[in-house]
Amino acid sequence: MKTTSPVLKLIQHVILWFVALIQIFPLVWLVNYSFLKSGDFFGKNILKWPAVFEWKNYNSAFTSGKVPHFMLNSLIITTVTILAAAILSLMLSYALTRMEWKLRKPTMAFILLGMIVPIHSTLLPNFILFDWLHIIDNPLSLILPYIAFSLPISMLIISGFVETIPRSIEESAVIDGSSIYGVIFRILLPITKPAIAAVCIMNFISWWNEFIMANTFLTSEKFKTLPFSIMKFAGQYSSNYGAQFAVMTMIALPTVIIYLMFTEQMSRGITAGAVKG
């Protein structure tokens, strides 16, 4: 096997470090500006070291921005979405990869078509439907479309993982008297944990700070989600930019932490079903 020369390896490391710095710079910039006064935002410098750290920006975010209340709403909606999507995806994957029925392949193709449909293209029909169902300004108006648009990619990943599992394991469970739901939740669920963890993390990243759907369907303070905290500091003639950046930092922080903690599980869950056998 050919060995990579030290010079080429050094160049590769320099390029990768440069790309990594470019990727992480927006987060550094976000945190940096969250400690500035609103009047310090304008100037030639991209980054400014604050003379005095404006911790009151975070205090304003928690009090005037109602971050705790909105964060709880976001947590409830996102948690219900990712759990429901994971369970439904696992059941769909079993039905489409293990069961033999007439319209199995067309059904799978129809579900996967959802991957090419942008969620925001459904705003108007969803609004009409939800208004007819009287669930406008209700968490269900977000949870239902979030689950629907989580299913295609989640099912694709879990299906690839399920296909790598020997059928003999399920056959043994059936011989021992297990039902279909017993096979799914007692046998497949523990085995497919890496894939389920991957889809849960992906769905969390997708829906945690989603704003357009939430802004369309939620009107009252009771159900509004975390991105609405930013709007609390936007005025007609002036805005509290420091508080807005503090809110955006708190919105981004859970996503970054979860991604860093579970990046290995994501990679393993996504790639596990790439090779069958």
**The first-level CATH class name:** Mainly Alpha
Radius of gyration: 23 Å
Oligomer: single chain
- The proportion of residues forming helix, as a percent range, comes to 55-70%
SSE run: HHHHHHHHHHHH
| Overall outline | globular
User: What is the CATH topology classification name?
Assistant: MetI-like fold
Approximately what portion of the residues adopt beta-strand conformation? Answer: under 5%
Number of discrete domains? 1
- Secondary structure class reads mainly alpha
Number of DSSP E strands: 0
Mean pLDDT: 83
**SS field, number of helical segments:** 12
Detail the poorly predicted runs.
Answer: none
How can the largest sheet be summarized?
A: none
- Beginning-to-end CA distance, first to last residue: 27 Å
What does this structure look like?
This protein has 277 residues and is mainly α. It has one domain (60-271): MetI-like (MetI-like fold, Orthogonal Bundle). The protein is built from twelve helices and no strands. Helix 3 crosses helix 6 (140-162), helix 3 packs across helix 9 and helix 6 packs antiparallel against helix 9 (193-207). The protein is globular, with a radius of gyration of 23 Å. The two termini are 27 Å apart. The model has no long low-confidence stretch (mean pLDDT 83).
